[in-house]
Amino acid sequence: MKLVTKDDNFFFLLGSMLVLFFVSAVVHQFKDDAQDYVLALIVLCMTTSIVGVHRKQVFYRSWYALMITVVVVSGVISLFEDYDLSLVTMFALLFFVLAQTFSALKQVMMPKQVTLNQIVGSICVYLLFGLSFAFIYLIQLELFVAPFNGLENKPWMENLFEVIYFSFITLTTVGFGDISPTLAIPKFFVFLEAITGSFYLAIMVASLVSSHLAQKE
């Protein structure tokens, strides 16, 4: 059995995101008021996801470390002080996920050979798209009044799993309708996510097939 090495960096990222999604669901179902647990889980996920980043990539490691610091400081202040820094926390999380998405997409699209790490990376990029739009929707919940039907006005960490669920339902263009946008700007990001999900699958499948054929030749 092949051991996971530093070149298999996407395994760290995929594992941390799957743990985040599952434990968020468990917390949401059985302990909906556990905001501190959710924040700790997000920080743990962010920290674990950079384990696979190569040490020579100083810029990415420094950027990720800065975002983690901002999330921890602003989150702790929001939980234990009277200041509400939810927007600061969510924007830091969004920038972190976008940086991860860009880095992962570049690594997936550039290699000429199709490897297991590249396939796992393509899955990670798809999940990162959904997570990025989830934080965009959470920010809109803070900025606008009732931007979505089916989502209550409560702290963003309590809405996290519901928004992640809605984001991936939109990304896969399933659209159950239990949550829906009511304002123009949220509607724009909803159909933008649906288009992104559809085109990404088509482009990624074509890219992997062409790389595999070139590898055979």
TrEMBL record:
Record's keyword annotation contains Transcription: no
One of the Pfam families matching this protein, by short name: Ion_trans_2
Keyword set, alphabetical order: Membrane, Transmembrane, Transmembrane helix
Highest taxon listed in the record's lineage: Bacteria
Source species of the chain: Vibrio hangzhouensis
UniProt keyword annotation of NAD present: no
Domain Potassium channel per the UniProt entry, residue ranges: 126-209
Designated name of the protein: Ion channel
Transmembrane segments: 12-31, 37-54, 63-80, 86-105, 117-139, 159-176, 188-209
Gene3D superfamilies in the cross-refs: 1.10.287.70
